[in-house]
Amino acid sequence: MKKIVYNPTTLAAPVGHFDRAVRFGDWLFVSGTSALTNAPGAMEDRRLVQGIDAQTRETLDNIERVLTAAGGTLAHIYELRVILRRREDFAAVDRILRERLPGKGFIAHGYEGVLLHPDMEIEIEANAYLGPIESVERVGR
Fold it and tell me: What is the pLDDT of residues 23-63, one digit of tens each?
């Protein structure tokens, strides 16, 4: 199986020794992404949009840029890992996820953690399936 690595030119270069995303067949694995992802320069010099709402939106925009480079959209996401500096920000993040990923159909994990940049409030890791899906069956609620 071929491995394809994505580092779209629509985003700044990764700040560490990693790639933005790796694809194996129809499976795309997107690295932890934040509002920093689109800010140029060394990590310590990057300026972030302020507030959890703005950072969540910018983070999702950055993930969408990676998905677009791989031929996908936010609708292809089947799993999210959300790391928050403050757990009390979960309600705001959940509200924005409902706007940007309205159909559900994905699983999510939430963590509270110390993030790399002192102004960083959120980081999201995403996994997506880019192949054809015959149908979606919902069981339960």
Answer: 999 999 999 999 987 766 666 677 788 999 999 999 999 99
Listed residue (65, 62, 76) closest to 26, CA to CA:
76
Classified by CATH at the fold level, domain 3-129 comes out as 60s Ribosomal Protein L30; Chain: A; (3.30.1330)
CA angle 55, 91, 99 (to 5 degrees): 65
Specify the DSSP class assigned to residue 51. Answer: S
Mapped onto helix, strand or coil, the DSSP state of residue 110 is: strand
Angle of CA points 100, 127, 85, to nearest 5° = 65
Cα–Cα distances (Å) from 46 to 54, 55, 103, 112, in that order, read 15, 13, 34, 22
CB hemisphere CA count around 122 (13 angstroms): 31
Q: Which of 139, 124, 118 is nearest to 63 (CA)?
A: 124
pLDDT score at 62:
96
Q: Is the CB of residue 89 less than 8 Å from the CB of residue 122?
A: yes
